[in-house]
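Hi both,

Apologies for the delay on this - the queue was longer than expected. I finally got the nicotinamide-adenine-dinucleotide-bound model through. Below you'll find the protein sequence and the ligand SMILES exactly as submitted, and right after that the structure tokens for the full complex including the ligand.
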Amino acid sequence: MSLDGKVAFVTGGSGGLGRVHGLVLAKNGADVALTGNRNMDKVEAVAKEIRALGKKAMAVKVDISDEGEVKAAAEAVKKELGSVDILVNNAAFGIVRAVKITDMEKEDWERDLSINLTGAFNCIKAMMGDMAEKKWGRIINISSVTGTMGGFGQCSYATTKAGLIGLTKTVALEGARNNITSNVIILGVFDGGSFYEVGESFRERIIKRVPMRRAGNPEELSNAVAFLASEESSYITGTELVVSGGIDLFTF
Ligand SMILES: NC(=O)c1ccc[n+]([C@@H]2O[C@H](COP(=O)([O-])OP(=O)(O)OC[C@H]3O[C@@H](n4cnc5c(N)ncnc54)[C@H](O)[C@@H]3O)[C@@H](O)[C@H]2O)c1
């Protein structure tokens, strides 16, 4: 797989999984813009790791729920690296919150939707025009098995992750004639990142439900991201790729 000459934009680039997506895309040849909305020193540190691989990298401060900030970020990346070819909508909020719907505050619900779902909408809207002009684009949305199976105490998060699936397929239809593919990756649980914010005993219980009896290594996910970002996946669009060690399969 070669991503030489391509520019990738990874939201949530300082997060446990976003960092690895950035590194794996760069190892495959892409220049990478990583976004963060706070802790920019962490995002800059990932950009430094990418530069050490010999690729260009940029740390961009942006709250993806703000359409104006996203447009400005896309322009800044275009100036420094070139227009975005590969968009990875990875940032998310409220990932491990466990609050039943009857106790959920409306403002938390709305914030989760504005980041996880509207954030992806904002990024796609800001970058798809340039992809259409170049007649090449890759949009990869990061969902979760919570979006297909539901999650106790996760009404907002599950809704956003399910929403990304419909968004992905619609964008696939709208982008197809311009050679823009849009796919969604449905994740199980992975080492690093938000899965480590849940307590150890809860984590062990979840891992027992994974047929492969382990959490995924982030690179096992990022390799799937890199494949969907590559020329080699050119006829794959509108698809859901489950990377979960089988956690969504019926077990007993
Ligand atoms: N870790 C897992 O096991 C797991 C499982 C299923 C799905 N996922 C999904 O994978 C993705 C990455 O998860 P992670 O574990 O690395 O989480 P993480 O919490 O480590 O990273 C999330 C990132 O999103 C960024 N972010 C949050 N709000 C933002 C905003 N308003 N604007 C811009 N950026 C914002 C954070 O700064 C952070 O960099 C998420 O979409 C998550 O839903 C993760």
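Main takeaway for now: Strands lie at 7-10, 31-36, 57-61, 86-89, 137-144, 180-187, 240-243.

I'll put the files on the shared drive as well.

H.
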